[in-house]
UniProtKB/TrEMBL annotation:
Pfam families: NMT1 (PF09084). InterPro entries: NMT1/THI5 (IPR027939), SsuA/THI5 (IPR015168). One of its GO terms (molecular function) is metal ion binding. One of its GO terms (biological process) is thiamine biosynthetic process. Belongs to the NMT1/THI5 family. It catalyses: N(6)-(pyridoxal phosphate)-L-lysyl-[4-amino-5-hydroxymethyl-2-methylpyrimidine phosphate synthase] + L-histidyl-[4-amino-5-hydroxymethyl-2-methylpyrimidine phosphate synthase] + 2 Fe(3+) + 4 H2O = L-lysyl-[4-amino-5-hydroxymethyl-2-methylpyrimidine phosphate synthase] + (2S)-2-amino-5-hydroxy-4-oxopentanoyl-[4-amino-5-hydroxymethyl-2-methylpyrimidine phosphate synthase] + 4-amino-2-methyl-5-(phosphooxymethyl)pyrimidine + 3-oxopropanoate + 2 Fe(2+) + 2 H(+). Homodimer. Residues 116-181, 291-371 form the SsuA/THI5-like domain. This is Thiamine pyrimidine synthase. The lineage of its organism: Bacteria, Bacillati, Bacillota, Clostridia, Eubacteriales. Responsible for the formation of the pyrimidine heterocycle in the thiamine biosynthesis pathway. Catalyzes the formation of hydroxymethylpyrimidine phosphate (HMP-P) from histidine and pyridoxal phosphate (PLP). The protein uses PLP and the active site histidine to form HMP-P, generating an inactive enzyme. The enzyme can only undergo a single turnover, which suggests it is a suicide enzyme.
Length: 374
């Protein structure tokens, strides 16, 4: 078992929602010594993803944070007719490191980098670890999008289109120049080291430019119908809201209740000239400043927002800040959230609308050490 040099808290982009949390109490796996001949052993390389998932689930050692990221894990377990129990994972990868969690949740652009890399705060496992990808398993849920209230969009259509035009321009530059984008994020108060920031930027770029099927996406911000529907279907299956009326409302939601592509279309058909109704606007991030949000920082740093007549404030998230609430009550104008969060918020009585989908695939994987499954 490898040991890292310094304890670090991973920056999982999670938000507490008014949903019931399905936490498991499976037993931890103890470190054992392998015995028997090679003929009696099954190499992890010969095991399928299904074998790995079943072995970890049966041993009660699948981990997840349980604060909005668990629905893909529940869908994955259900896919293989397994129970819904999982271990509550903290925001470090210590459980993975000490083998108490043999199949641990990780975001490709964050925790997976900490596990693999040996820079300050990393565990240094390198390519010795492997992972199961939610996209490959067909249970992917879409993450970061741009949203606002329906009322704000209807009252300020040119402002929304202008904001999207500049933000997408920032994202286009960021994915083409991730190293520079990482440096820009770092200068704006990055919450992680410069080395981890650079790793994050490279991985976030992949989520923006690759869809759930592994195909290249050139239309940044596109709201893919199939991927969004899959996300909403999984949300309906596994999210349980505390309020019975809200829970019933969630089941009746359609994509048309949570998204509107007309503002994105207006932005993409524009020559970059806008008569904005509101020049000073703000966007609430889902977490602390880092490359997960590099497109907005690039747009700000490069002056893209100024070019369309906007003065934009980027508001950091984290802690008890709920981006859906902040947008709904008018504290900020725009926000970054996940499709499932927006659906839950609207089911609970909010009036939010997605206007662009930035991440085109899920960033969630389950990472494991092959030797634990030999």
């Amino acid at each position: 078992m490898k040991r890292r040099m310094k304890r670090i808290v991973s920056l999982a982009s999670v938000v507490v929602m008014g949903a019931s949390v399905f936490t498991g109490c499976g037993s931890s796996k103890e470190e054992t010594t392998q015995t028997g001949s090679s003929a009696e052993q099954s190499s992890a390389a010969e095991l399928s993803s299904e074998d790995i998932i079943k072995a970890a689930a049966e041993n009660g050692s699948v981990g997840n944070w349980g604060l909005g990221n668990e629905y893909e894990v529940l869908a994955l377990l259900s896919k293989y007719d397994l129970g819904s129990d999982y271990l509550s994972q903290d925001f470090t990868m210590d459980g993975f490191d000490d083998d108490s969690i043999t199949l641990a949740s990780a975001m490709t652009y964050n925790e997976l980098g900490l596990v693999k890399n040996d820079y300050d705060g990393g565990y240094g496992y390198g390519d010795s670890v492997e992972y199961i990808d939610m996209n490959d398993e067909g249970v992917a849920m879409l993450e970061d999008n741009i949203f606002c209230t329906e009322d704000f969009a209807k009252e300020n259509p040119n402002t929304v289109a202008a904001f999207l035009y500049a933000s997408l321009k920032g994202w286009e530059y960021a994915v083409e120049n991730p190293e520079e984008a990482a440096e820009i994020c770092y200068t704006y108060g990055s919450s992680v080291s410069a080395e981890h920031q650079a790793y994050m930027a490279e991985e976030v770029a992949k989520l923006v430019t690759t869809d759930t099927q592994g195909e290249t996406v050139t239309d940044i911000g596109n709201m893919d119908e199939d991927a969004m529907q899959q996300t909403l279907d999984i949300a309906k299956e596994y999210i349980s809201l505390d309020d019975s009326d809200a829970d019933a409302a969630l089941q009746s939601l359609t994509l048309d209740d949570i998204r509107d592509s007309s503002y994105l279309e207006a932005a993409k058909s524009s020559d970059g000239t806008f008569d904005v109704e509101k020049s000073e606007v703000s966007i609430q991030l889902k977490w602390l400043p880092d490359a997960q949000f590099m497109g907005y920082y690039v747009a700000l740093d490069k002056g893209y927002y100024k070019e369309v007549g906007l003065d934009v404030e980027i508001v950091a998230g984290g802690g008890d800040i709920a981006e859906t609430t902040a947008v709904n009550n008018g504290t900020v104008d725009f926000g970054v959230t996940w499709v499932s969060n927006l659906a839950s918020a609207n089911a609970g009585g909010m009036n939010l609308v997605e206007v662009a989908q930035i991440f085109q695939r899920s960033g969630l994987v389950l990472v494991y050490k092959p030797e634990n499954f030999e």
